[in-house]
Amino acid sequence: MTITKRNYDELKIDGPPLYCNNSLTTTETTSPHPKASSSSTTKIDGHLHCHQHCQLDASKTALLIVDVQPEYWSECPPVRRDFPQFPTKISSLIQNCRTQNTKRIIWVRADYSYEHSPWLHQFARLHEGNIPPIVRPSSKWEGFATPEDGEMIITKTSWSSTSGGTGLLETLKQDGIDTVLVCGLITSVCVQHSAFGVFEAGYRTILVTDACADRGRERHEAALALYGDYMYELRSVDSLKVELEEQRKNDDAVVKKKKMRIHESGDEKSINKGAMSSIMEGVSVSLPFHKDGGSNVGRRDKKMMIKSESNDSLTSATSYDDSVSSIEDHGVAVGGAVADE
Fold this sequence. Notes:
Layout: H1 23-26, E1 36-44, E2 47-54, E3 61-66, H2 77-82, H3 86-99, E4 104-110, H4 120-127, E5 152-156, H5 168-174, E6 179-185, H6 187-200, E7 204-213, H7 217-227, E8 233-235, H8 237-280, E9 302-307, E10 314-320, E11 331-334, E12 337-340
Parallel strand pairs: 3-4, 3-6, 4-5, 6-7, 7-8
Antiparallel strand pairs: 1-2, 9-10, 11-12
Helix pairs in contact: 3-8
């Protein structure tokens, strides 16, 4: 039997309204997503993808890991057969996100039963037992993909990570997330539905192609051909690593510049303070007296500036209300000299 390799390019939509023209930059929107900064065409899984790049901000990015559990990997030969690099790729993606301090890493596990998954009856009827309908996740994780302390774990009873009261969308909103990286198992089913849900909620959605796998390579490629760069963006593990590292370098450069400005500002203040201290040397009291005709001086509150011995700064003193017994009729004494009014 001869197997003909299918080409899914005909499933792609040429010139979609989302990423291959200027509509993103010309249409007014209230979306929290960052504005596009540049556009490029890349080749992923053998297909060309055109999209406008938006800068990734790790502090506003979440990684969503869908159904990476024994039921869909170590106990599922069709997936393992066509995607031997999946463990290495998804492990690398998870580590990159941890290293770059993405805001959230969220693990999603399937938990399907007839009691709380209404769709399961129809699914079982359609597949006549060829695909086990009931999934009861154990406490086991795959060795290449295991949560760490502080990482969120949610359970879903449907194909989408955003439905059935998972609380995912509420978490993304509370954390100030604007971009969600989606990966896991199975590409054309739960990964796809989860990406749909995140996209429909208004988040920038990026599907990491080589960190996903399906029950057959063709199903995987067909799913990406239908919706890649139309509903969600496509990236590879390596391209995301480069983007996150570049953004980290840019952030570090900005922080360094701010520190330099603060340091320079502090030096300038020290110089000004030293200059003022030098000017004030030898100045004992400066009294802005007001003459009240003739040689009489009016009795009123006066202000004088005195040099603080404790912190070497200028301090304001008030309520100087003593009589002045001897003063020049046409001036006041300042630093040992007479200043005419």
